[in-house]
Amino acid sequence: MKLVTKNINIQNEIFTLTNQRAVFWKKEKALILSDLHVGKTAHFRKNGIALANHIMKNDLERLSILIEYFQPEKFIVVGDLLHAGDNSDVDEFCGWRNQYPDLQFYLIEGNHDKISKKLESKLCLNVKVEFLEIDDFVFIHDFEKNQPKFQITGHIHPGFVINSPVKNIKLPCFAVSESQLLLPAFSEFTGLDTKNLPKKGRFYVFTDSEIYEI
């Protein structure tokens, strides 16, 4: 895995975008990402659709590399940590999580995060909230029009279409507007929404080897 980074300024704070679908906020020592959808592949297998379990393993390997590189103190998931409740993929995630007992684990609840008290304990969450405010920023799964603070959100799984004479290519991206940083889905096993993106935004489109500002 090649890790590519790009620093951007938001509200006079430096955020480091990565081509691995996550952001690092140095001031808070926080690794920030959204839409892991842990359990999605197991859910599909349970319903008769054969999927390899390496999808989940790859996501966790990428997470481990990001943690080793940035050495965060906080791990902030901006919604949809889970996909369909408790299953074997969740067990695998919990085993991974237990490797980092000192890492403070924050979950901003998403529409897929139906988490019982028992499951919350199993996941070793330090904080589970509907939204999280830190300084001039609010972390919330889906954008709220009447929120006065700058929002860091997920939910949309943003993508951008690169037009070429040969073939149009759809790539994941970060989208930044005056009031929002929209994160890509961390899990690679997700679709891309190229339509419901912030207007008048800057887009940071990435591949395995580059991050492009558009």
Number of separate strands: 15
| Tally of DSSP helical segments | 4
Shape: globular
Low-confidence runs:
none
* Element string (H = helix, E = strand): EEEEHHEHEHEEEEEEEEE
Main beta sheet strand tally, sense and closure: 8 strands, mixed
Mean pLDDT: 90
Q: Cα distance, first to last residue?
A: 24 Å
Strand content: 25-35%
Report helical residue fraction: 10-25%
Output the structural class. alpha/beta
Radius of gyration: 17 Å
Describe the structure in brief.
The protein has 214 residues and is α/β, with parallel strands linked by helices. It contains 4 helices and 15 strands.
Structure characterization notes:
It contains 4 helices and 15 strands. The protein has helices at residues 40-46, 54-70, 88-97, 117-122; strands spanning 5-10, 13-18, 23-25, 30-33, 74-77, 104-108, 127-129, 131-134, 137-140, 150-153, 159-162, 169-176, 180-182, 202-206, 211-213. Helices cover 19% and strands 31% of the residues. The strands form 2 sheets. Strands 8, 9, 10, 11, 12, 13, 14 and 15 form an 8-stranded mixed sheet that branches.
